[in-house]
Amino acid sequence: MDSDDTPSNTNSELSVPSPYDNVLVLRQTNQLIALLTKIRSKETKRGDFIFYSDRIIRLLVEAGLNYLPVTEVTVDTYTGNTYTGVQFEGKICGVSVMRAGESMEQGLRDCCRSVRIGKILIQRDEETSEAKLYYSKLPEDIADRWVFLLDPMLATGGSAIKAVEVLKKRGVSEERIIFLNLISSPEGIKHFRDTFPQLRVVTSFIDKGLNDKNFIVPGLGDFGDRYYTD
Fold this sequence. Notes:
Blueprint: E1 15-17, E2 23-26, H1 30-40, H2 46-65, E3 70-76, E4 82-88, E5 91-98, H3 105-111, E6 116-124, E7 131-137, E8 145-150, E9 153-154, H4 158-169, E10 177-184, H5 186-195, E11 200-206, E12 209-210, E13 216-217, H6 223-228
Parallel strand pairs: 2-11, 5-6, 5-8, 8-10, 9-10, 10-11
Antiparallel strand pairs: 1-2, 3-4, 6-7, 12-13
């Protein structure tokens, strides 16, 4: 991994397997449940919503970093001894699905110095109801990088699937994409997993399901509006 992309620390809450292949859910500690309770509550003001969301995002990033390949390395310590540990291989970048995914960029930067960030804008076509790509700006060498795809909510999976299709067209393999997500629906997870069986997902919680308007329930509302709008 390039020196400017080296993660600062990967010690995070251990993740536990979900019922879905290649999907890890953060360990449901009292701390995490308390954070989720705060961001779900409609009484939580914007400043607190940002603060508690950022804490969860940091946990997701650190858990995602554990997927990166490492090689053994021995270093000299100040006591005149040696220590055999590991160092990360390859380069990474983040790709946020605008606009809600941009809220997760700082959490990635907090763990990975000078990490490159790409952006993808996807919106639902009013006539076809299908996810449509409107804009993308990605690192030129993205095919050679491990990619952290950032989007806080996974409902039907349409936008996330479209984003992965964009990445694959740029030469990124499924195995090198790690999707970081705060809240998922079972329907979205299944759709996403069935479409990209080799891609990994790290989420903090899989909710009950979707309502008749395809909103995640119990959910937390529109993440982007709550994070960016007073």
